[in-house]
């Protein structure tokens, strides 16, 4: 499984898949291999098939926080939001120090238009992992929806600070332009 993890880290999905398929032929109940196979399928946007592997992993280990988290993520991408939230909440109960679980909780709340709660969850995810770029973006969107352009601009500026090679100059101005433009497309949310 270490070899498969290395291939996954390098985004060499073909070799990772080969190693995992061989491993699963030997041990069809290897939870880590099942989860890694699901991750490959997720990277290929094949969420339905990833659920098959995650369900098998959860049959073997119903308390696998990682399997629950990834299942919630897959269900979210399949627009099965209530089921996604249930899995993510169960994963959270077992592992509340995982930035990605907090992020997924934010995604669910944002989908259900609980933007204030989403901001809280995104903020916690960023506290755990300050380099969580996607989280800053989704935090900024919620702040725009909530009518908080300054907070949204701060989140975008943070993204630009993390990518100095991509946004060398004018980061603050670019953040302002993005928020001003996006604010026109989101109706202000009344609290």
Unreliable stretches: none
Q: Summarize the biggest pleated sheet.
A: none
Order of helix and strand elements from N to C terminus: HHHHHHHHHHH
Tell me the span between the first and last alpha carbons.
Answer: 49 Å
How would you state the average pLDDT, rounded?
89
Count of alpha and pi helical runs: 11
Structural class: mainly alpha
Shape: elongated
Number-wise, the strands total 0
C-alpha Rg, in Å? 19 Å
Helix content: over 70%
Verbal overview:
The protein contains eleven helices and no strands. It has helices spanning 2-9, 13-26, 31-43, 47-60, 65-77, 81-94, 99-111, 115-128, 133-145, 149-162, 171-183. The chain is elongated.
Which helices and strands appear, and what pairs or packs with what?
Elements lengths: L1 H8 L3 H14 L4 H13 L3 H14 L4 H13 L3 H14 L4 H13 L3 H14 L4 H13 L3 H14 L8 H13 L8
Helix pairs in contact: 1-2, 2-3, 3-4, 3-5, 4-5, 5-6, 5-7, 6-7, 7-8, 8-9, 9-10, 10-11
In short:
This protein is 75% helix and 0% strand.
Structural key phrases:
191 residues, mainly alpha, 11 helices, 75% helix, elongated
